[in-house]
């Protein structure tokens, strides 16, 4: 399979800069001093076993109050991200695709999408779209994602299959055009066709101004979305970083090598057999 071309991240200040981030839930520390930079144009993949803190990191960045930040700092596009409420983080350009998208019965997709887009446009000083302009835009995106227009009138994710929910998340992302998109195990439970649809949506949006953080257990997503950097989270800390070859090592060996204390950088691609 031919891999999508990778964009070279811009040599500039990080779009996302995390220093010493600590977070806990119910008095239990889950993140134990996270440091991470993600540059504009970069696709960063975060891998790790269950319970390592991957989804906690995503939820903390999005502002979910279930978690308590007990130390460290996060700057997003020059702003103190932790000082912003969740809605302000979204308006600033941060997007989170959930591992398990929630259903909102009674609230139609079309209403949610139009309200979210126009709130964002207002925040950016742009005129709101009228109903005709909005429908033209959203229907064009739905065709690209292989979604039936009938989903616009249904309740948000109500009765959707797993693949339909993830496509719906990609529709929201494509419509809102965030500066930073965090995909929290979006590949979880997807069949091949749905996985390819998610990858196609991400690859179509790669640009020098936008960054992605892909949280995943498996290398299969990274076969379709080639990351610039791969970071391994283990017991609340990043213990290894490298290029796509690091994901391939995990695919071959699992995470057992972390238990053996082998947290050095992986071999370069040229040294692999």
Automatic annotation (TrEMBL):
Top-level division of the source organism's lineage: Bacteria
Molecular function terms from GO: ATP binding
Keywords: ATP-binding, Cell membrane, Membrane, Nucleotide-binding
Annotated InterPro entries: AAA+_ATPase, ABC_transporter-like_ATP-bd, ABC_transporter-like_CS, FeS-cluster_ATPase_SufC, P-loop_NTPase
Any one Pfam family match given in the protein's UniProt record, by short name: ABC_tran
Limits of the ABC transporter domain: 16-260
Similarity comment: Belongs to the ABC transporter superfamily. Ycf16 family.
UniProt-recorded name of the protein: Component of SufBCD complex, ATP-binding component of ABC superfamily
Gene label: sufC
